[in-house]
């Protein structure tokens, strides 16, 4: 999972994020610690994690959980933290399957997506998310928040 996380970040963010962030020594080790905690630490027991595979090959990862940045007036009950699929598998249905595995399709939810990242933003719009006008910069990458009302 850590390897997929690092490699898909590099595919997704190369040119948007500084190379020294993407290529730093220990990047995969830090993602390994992240995933180990996400899976084993009781503090994260409410998180939902899923992986996508084709045969024996892991091709995508996802994680969602309780909203981390929702204000008192937030209308969503879940937040997508991670959803990455190797570019070679974009359009295969893996991303939609991962999203549905970690957030029920009718559940109100929020997520942050890189801006610009038209492909990812179109994917999330297809799944009922829309920008809410909130933006931020994280690790030098502009991001917008997208939300989905419950059905």
TrEMBL record:
Family annotation (Gene3D superfamilies): 3.40.630.30
Pfam family, one: Acetyltransf_1
Protein keywords: Transferase
Single GO term (MF): acyltransferase activity, transferring groups other than amino-acyl groups
SUPFAM superfamilies noted in UniProt: Acyl-CoA N-acyltransferases (Nat)
InterPro entries per the UniProt record, alphabetical: Acyl_CoA_acyltransferase, GNAT_dom
Domain N-acetyltransferase: 4-151
The UniProt record lists the keyword Transferase: yes
Transferase in keyword set: yes
The protein, known as: GNAT family N-acetyltransferase
Organism: Microbacterium protaetiae
């Amino acid at each position: 999972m850590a390897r997929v996380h690092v490699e898909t970040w590099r595919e997704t963010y190369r040119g948007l994020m500084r190379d020294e962030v993407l290529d730093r020594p220990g990047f995969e080790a830090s993602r390994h610690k992240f995933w180990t905690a996400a899976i084993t630490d009781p503090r994260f027991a409410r998180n939902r994690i899923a992986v996508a595979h084709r045969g024996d090959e892991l091709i995508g990862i996802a994680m969602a959980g309780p909203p981390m940045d929702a204000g008192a007036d937030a209308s969503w009950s879940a937040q997508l933290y991670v959803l990455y699929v190797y570019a070679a598998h974009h359009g295969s249905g893996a991303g939609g399957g991962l999203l549905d595995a970690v957030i029920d399709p009718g559940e109100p939810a929020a997520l942050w997506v890189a801006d610009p990242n038209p492909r990812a933003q179109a994917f999330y719009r297809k799944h009922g998310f829309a920008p809410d006008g909130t933006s931020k910069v994280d690790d030098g990458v502009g991001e917008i928040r997208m939300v989905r009302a419950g059905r």
